[in-house]
Amino acid sequence: MKTPFETEERRAFRKTMRDFVTREIMPFADAWDEAGEIPWELHQKTGALGVWGFGIDEAYGGLGFDDCFMRAAFNEEFGRSGTGGVGAAMNGRMISIEPIHRLASPEIKDRVLGDIIAGRKGSSLGVTEPGGGSDVANLKTTARRDGNHFVLNGSKTFITGGMTSDYFVIPARTGGAGLGGISLFFVEADTPGFSRSALPRKMGWWCSDQATLFLDDVRVPAENMMGEEDRGFLAIMENFNLERVALIAAMLGMMKACFEDSLAWAEERETFGKKMIRHQVIRHKLADISTSIDAVEAFLNMICHNVNEGPMPVAEICKCKVFTSKALEKVASESMQILGGAGYLRGNRIERIYREVKVMAIGGGSEEIMRDLAMRQMGH
Ligand SMILES: Cc1cc2nc3c(=O)[nH]c(=O)nc-3n(C[C@H](O)[C@H](O)[C@H](O)COP(=O)(O)OP(=O)(O)OC[C@H]3O[C@@H](n4cnc5c(N)ncnc54)[C@H](O)[C@@H]3O)c2cc1C
Asked: Where are the domains of the chain?
């Protein structure tokens, strides 16, 4: 759809991203997913595009500017690859870059941000715990002050990049119960007492790693506290907004992939003496898929505009994330239906996307939590 927000720069940026994904990812995505890993080289190739540097000062290796439309385009093009695991493995670091940039000490920023943004090192955000991910205010990991250090104890799970990242942003309880007692910490993977184990086999996202992290008397310097003591909950919540925009954009790319592949199939395959596209039922399915894409795209564009202009449209982001994962669920199912048995075979975008719907409906704030937060943001 045409949009009033299109500019020459944004068009050129999208083309760069599309060309990159088409050349560097799509031909290999299936093999990487089956192998359960991606060569580290892709981190560096992606890093060289600068895409992890949105909103980050140039002094730290960032782009020195931000644009939500470009953020969305980049995530959408990764989504279009139809292999969510690649997007998770590469772009999972985005949710830790922002808090490091905003809240870590100048020494830490100087030392690590350039490497993370360039793809030489990996970083992760570890919020979710074995006891639960939705109720962040209730997290159990503790950080006890001991002189000039904090000592962390607890466990995190489902952490994307957890097996391969060098740096972690870890919220832990420094104060009393509830949201007012949480602080953020910068933790390096080689700190004594830090260990990790890979999650068992997953429904999708095969080529990205998720880990359980164990913090067993992990001592970090007091300067590794990020931001103010006991004020970490708000920082986590603020960080979720751009993560959710990225997920919405990735889902938009996934829906476009479903449309492209099911349309191509319907135009090619014949049943009952004519091309499938000539059967009205199939045409209606495709029209509905295309309508869902238009609706999400329009919603996302308005969100990007409002993110750029401020203030952060939190309720709309929450509502759009639910709307999009629900739309994706239907789109993935209907496009696989168009492919028939062929869609059920491994090695095609639609089959993978169908298996990756649920992680989008749960990760980064589940559908239930998104609806609840939207209502609260609207004052109810
Ligand atoms: C592949 C993958 C990658 C992930 N990567 C990361 C990562 O990098 N970092 C990280 O910190 N986390 C990560 N997560 C964790 C993710 O954020 C959590 O799974 C999510 O927040 C939900 O938490 P939970 O699984 O503990 O479910 P729970 O919080 O136990 O909730 C279970 C179900 O109950 C529903 N529910 C909970 N409370 C309510 C309520 N009050 N009302 C109605 N329904 C409710 C939830 O919506 C959910 O459907 C990842 C998860 C997956 C699957």
From this structure: 8-118, 123-233, 234-377
Q: At what angle do helices 232-268 and 94-103 cross, to 10 degrees?
A: 150
> 252 CB under 6 A from ligand 1?
no
- Mean pLDDT, the chain, as a whole number? 97
Q: What is the pLDDT of residues 159-178, one digit of tens each?
A: 999 999 999 999 999 999 99
Share of the chain above pLDDT 70, in %: 100
159 lines ligand 1 (CB under 6 A): yes
CATH fold of 8-118 reads Butyryl-Coa Dehydrogenase, subunit A; domain 1 (1.10.540)
* CATH code given to domain 123-233: 2.40.110.10
